[in-house]
Amino acid sequence: MNKILQVALLHTGNFFFPRTCYVCGERILTGWSCPECIHTLPAGIRFDATILPPLQRVAAIWRYENAVRAAIDDWKFNQLAPLGEQLIHSALKYEWLQEWFSEPFDVIIGIPPHRHHLRMRGFDPVQQIVRNLSTLWNTPNSNALVRARSVNPQIESTRKQRQHNVLGAFRVNKPVTGSVLLVDDVITTGSTLREAAKTLLGSGADRVSGFILASAGSSIIIQDIESN
User: Fold this and answer.
1) Which terminal residue of the chain, N or C, has fewer Cβ atoms less than 10 Å from its own Cβ?
2) Can you state the angle between helices 125-136 and 81-91, rounded to 10 degrees?
3) Kind of pairing, strands 170-172 and 145-147?
């Protein structure tokens, strides 16, 4: 899509995307869901260091299912960047979020995209989340984390395959210190997030926590940890 048109759509997205609530299907004028329907969504999932080491704390705002999954998939795979803005703004309104992350972060870093995903979509959904978090919490963001090698598609991989696939997948291209908030859009087993956290900790970060828009299921993540 032409970059000028993308910018225009981003600023006028509330008028065009989506036209109906993803939860109930009723017509809406702004946002991606009726205000009432937002409160009917299944609660997000929070993990501490006992569940997803070496991450200190991880928050997944929603569960990756039903209306949330449909909206996220439309955002990512149909190149609807304005819809992403609406999802992110809704996610960041939850009061428990800043209570869960009670200590301030020194920097916010996103999981870097696969090159073919970036070419296909024309934008990086994770960086949209990073920019919004950075603005809301007045915290700098960095692109210090980069892909060190290509990784096989994870979507149909088993838990052990996911763990193996991401080994050595990341590197750091500039200094990282202090407390880091690591960001991704969807988490399944946690293998990618954990490998990225290990890379950051091995490169100078003191501690790493995670912010995720949606979790594909806590049972999968717990099984993954228990298999180590």
Assistant:
1) C
2) 40
3) antiparallel
Residue 42 pLDDT grade (very low, low, confident, very high; cuts 50, 70, 90) = confident
Residues with Cβ < 8 Å from 226, sequence gap 6 or more? none
**What number of CA atoms fall less than 13 Å from residue 212's CA on the CB side?**
29
180 with 107: CB under 8 angstroms? yes
Average of per-residue pLDDT values in the chain: 83
Q: Measured between alpha carbons, how far is 63 from 118 in angstroms, rounded to an integer?
A: 24
Dihedrals phi, psi of 214, to nearest 5 degrees: -150, 145
Cβ-defined contacts of 129-137 (< 8 Å, 24+): 129/88, 129/183, 129/185, 129/211, 129/213, 130/183, 132/85, 132/88, 132/89, 132/92, 133/92, 133/108, 133/181, 133/183, 133/211, 134/108, 136/92, 137/98, 137/104, 137/105, 137/108
Question: Which strands, in side-by-side order, build the sheet including 107-110?
Answer: 45-48, 57-63, 205-215, 178-187, 107-110, 141-142
- Count the neighbouring beta carbons within 10 Å of the beta carbon of residue 8: 12
